[in-house]
């Protein structure tokens, strides 16, 4: 008897995870399709381009569409949460609304937070630098050269932002260890130059 309860609890957990994953996928698919049509509506018609530029434009279009879908999902999540909570309070015993539970809403919030940060700090800068890149001088031209230049630019941007934040935190925090750390940083830069 206890084994059947354990199996049924495991099955219920499995079914709820599958249900949540399916709902998340369907919501994101709808948002992605709508975002794709919005971007196509406002995208400037491009001239005939070389194969490499066309591939770069397609990759940037995909990244921009993904970012727009994630941001639309993050914006629509608060009204969705409020409406689902009101529906659950109005019809607590309805069989057809049981899929709309707190676990689904928490999962959607976690996914929105994760993918919003990913889009803001990784995908959008990558799309911009990738669209503007031409490859390093002296290397064979192609997609790989553009990706390499884009990754180098992203690493340099991350180091620049990290350095600015580190210097600002050392200046704001007025203790001796922070100032000594800042002086060591300036000595290191002086030796590198």
UniProtKB/TrEMBL annotation:
One GO MF term: transmembrane signaling receptor activity
Highest taxon above the source species: Eukaryota
Cellular component, GO annotation: plasma membrane
Residues making up the signal peptide according to the UniProt record: none
InterPro entries, sorted: LIMR, LMBR1-like_membr_prot
Record GO biological process: signal transduction
Entry keyword set: Membrane, Transmembrane, Transmembrane helix
TM regions (residue ranges): 20-40, 61-84, 104-131, 151-172
Family: Belongs to the LIMR family.
PANTHER family: LIMB REGION 1 PROTEIN HOMOLOG, LIPOCALIN-1 INTERACTING MEMBRANE RECEPTOR LIMR
UniProt-recorded name of the protein: Limb development membrane protein 1
Organism phylogeny: Eukaryota, Metazoa, Chordata, Craniata, Vertebrata
């Amino acid at each position: 008897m206890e084994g059947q309860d354990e199996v049924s609890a495991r099955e219920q957990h499995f079914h709820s995870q599958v249900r949540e994953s399916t709902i998340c996928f369907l919501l994101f698919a709808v948002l992605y399709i709508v975002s794709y049509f919005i971007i196509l509506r406002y995208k400037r018609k491009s001239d005939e381009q070389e194969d490499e530029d066309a591939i770069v434009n397609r990759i940037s279009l995909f990244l921009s569409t993904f970012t727009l879908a994630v941001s639309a999902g993050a914006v629509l999540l608060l009204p969705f949460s409020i409406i689902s909570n009101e529906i659950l309070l109005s019809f607590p015993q309805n069989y057809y609304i049981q899929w709309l539970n707190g676990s689904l809403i928490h999962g959607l919030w976690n996914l929105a937070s994760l993918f919003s940060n990913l889009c803001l700090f990784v995908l959008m800068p990558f799309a911009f630098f990738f669209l503007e890149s031409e490859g390093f001088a002296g290397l064979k031209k192609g997609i790989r050269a553009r990706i390499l230049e884009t990754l180098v630019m992203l690493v340099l941007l991350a180091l620049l932002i990290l350095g600015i934040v580190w210097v600002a935190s050392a200046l704001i925090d007025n203790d001796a260890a922070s100032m000594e750390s800042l002086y060591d940083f300036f000595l290191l830069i002086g030796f590198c130059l």
